Description:
Layout: E1 3-5, E2 17-19, E3 22-24, H1 36-51, H2 55-64, H3 72-88, E4 92-93, E5 103-104, H4 124-133, H5 139-146, H6 151-165
Parallel strand pairs: 1-3, 4-5
Antiparallel strand pairs: 2-3
Amino acid sequence: MTNWLSKENGAGGGAAFTLDNYIGAPNDIKLSPNDPILQHEYGRYLQSQVQGLAYRPFTAIPDFFSSGNDNPTAWDGNARALKYFNKYYDGVYTDPKNPVGNVNWNLLKNYINGYDKDLPISDPFNQAALKRALRSPGIFDIFADATPLSIFWFADAIINHSKNKQ
C-alpha cells in the first residue's frame, strides 16, 4: 500500500520524495498516471518494493546527492513505472501527436536512457532500453542497510553515488 504525504499532513510540500511506502509530494501533484511527478515517484515506490532493505543505500541515498532526473537510479525507477503504467493502464505513449494508449509518459521529465519516443514500448529497441535501465543491488547494499551508520553504510553510499556520476 502506498501512503501519500502532502503539506497538509506533515510533508514539507516542496520537492517530491519517496521513502519505502511513503510518497511525499507538492500540493500541486495530480493523482493521475499522466502526472510526471506521480510517474517518477511511483517508480521510486516500485524500486523500494523490489530492492527491499537495499533501497535506501542503493537508491535513495545516492539519489539524494544527485541532481536532476537523468542518472541511473532515476532511469531505473522511470523504467519500472513506465512498464507498470503500460501494463495496468492499457498502454503508454510518449509522443502526444500519436496517442496510442491511455497514459502520456513525459520523457523530458522522466527520461530513460536509450528509450526512443518515436517507437512503441513494445519495440525491441525500447524493450532493450528498459531492460538496461533496471539495476540490481548486491549483497553489500543489503548488508549496508542492516548496519546503519556503519563503515558498510558509508562505503556503500559513496560507491553508489560514484556509480551515478558515471
